[in-house]
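Box 4.2: Ligand-aware structure prediction
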Amino acid sequence: MTNSPTILVFDSGLGGLTVLREVVAARPDAHYVYVADDAFFPYGHHSEDEIIARVVPLMGELIGTHDPDIVVIACNTASTLVLSHLRAAYSLPFVGTVPAIKPACAQSKSRRVSVLGTKGTVKREYTKALIRDFAQGCEVTLVGSPELASLAEAELSGRSISDEAILAELAPCFVGKASDATSRTDTVVLACTHYPLLLDRMKKLAPWTVDWIDPAPAIARRVSDLLGPRIGGTAQDRAAMIFTSNRVHGLSATLTPFFGGRAVA
Ligand code: DGL
């Protein structure tokens, strides 16, 4: 690739920004288009058929408009369902975000791992297959959170979110006796890209210390490998931030750090 590549990062809302910031750090030479399908948020509340019928044609329109070199589906709820449909329909490379069950189970010492995702993600056959193939003897607890993605959106938009609201979603991840460090949960997979937005608060609220697995750096490495060697320098253009609802977000100052400091149009 000789020109600056264009990377389109897609999520149902603002969660994909946690993947975007890693991709931007790995590929400052690229142009960025971030699409938040907020008109259909939250994906975790929609049926599988509804998500496929929404995302596959929408992606066709986005590819037609922005002509990306690569698309990152920065959403577990969508990736665990639509990646195969997107790859069959469009010829460019897609990188998805799926629950990091394999590395979590490989590193767990207590052999107790929890997967915190949307209700949709934890129900998926894709997620169950990852557990069958990669649990490596660990007990894996699936925790489907109804509200955490919306709470993360709200906090990023400057609203105040109570500790109680976060803890209610988080508590089922902690399995075993707090007093028995050898058998209680020691690893939690962040299987929704919104959740790293609340990570500092979740760490403070957790009943005991665990390792939180965020796959974003691994996704960024995969994107960079697919694009090939960097051309050097930093693309100077403004990044594009698109909301499918066309809402006026007024979030530019909040968003800029996720785009590596570049201006967001
Ligand atoms: N960010 C999305 C994910 O990774 C989900 C949020 C939603 O329910 O829309 O699963």
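In the box above, the bound molecule is D-glutamic acid. Residues 126 and 165 are 29 Å apart (CA to CA).
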